[in-house]
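Why does residue order matter? Because the sequence determines the fold. Keep that principle in mind as you read this record.
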Amino acid sequence: MESTSTFPQLQHHHQDSDSESCVSGTTGEQQQDSNLFLVTLREGDVVHDLIKTRFLRGLGLISTKTEILAIHRNACSDVVSQARLQSFHVYAEAVSKIRGGNSNVKYAWYGSYGENDVRDILSNGFSHVHGHSLCLSPDDSPLHSVKSCVVGRDGVRHLILCRVILGRTEIVQSDTKQCYPSCEDYDSGVDNISAPNKYMIWSSRMNTHVWPAYVISFRVSSSKGVEMSEDEHVRPSSPWMPFPILISILSKVLPSLDIALICKFYKAKKEGKISRHELIQKVRQIAGDKLLISVIKSYRAKKKSASFQQTKSKNGI
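Structure:
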């Protein structure tokens, strides 16, 4: 199985650990985390230092403002996790066979919604929290995933470094509602064939073609340079648009499955199970920023017009 991973040393480490034990490591450098899902990698560990260097290099100018707090490896300590990892290998071999010996396995970043999201993904995979597709960033370009991370109250963000089976890729738009390859010739989507900034993994393949391998926890001292521009990052928050109205409008254009997922998260927010910020991030993931920006701008324009007409009426104009 050919792999074009840009983390060759990390790929070699994985081949060794996968063939032996998912929790094996360098004595004295790794420690089982209390939650059993993660193994702590210490400073000086080859893999720790490789991930840290690659991550900071990909951040560019904001790397000097970024503090790495911890790097963990997926412990893969239970039977289900081990079976899921073996399934990943089986699918990689299958893709390799139908794509001329190249499964095109890469490393890619996922911006999490927080600690609970990381825990859920390690336990259940990705498909339980996502809509039609999963968007990942190439390992040498983590900034987009950093921007999409939910920032905890203590300022901490969590990225997951995944192994992903891309196979043969096709170009797709970032706001696509596509939920499977356009034809049997393709396995995943990218925004640019020669120099992709985004990988798109379809809903039917999230839990088979993506393996959450490492978690990096970090803090950025200044959000300047990390936040997207207003056009990229308009968020549907209550001062602009009540969520019930947003859901009502989205139900006219999104598939019923996506709306059901949004309603589920909205209910979780009302019950205090997730924060409003987490809800917003999930809605952005499902609906896409382009659609949300359009809906919000339209709503605000109509509201402004209605307010203007009401003022004219009161003034007898």
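The longest strand covers residues 210-220.
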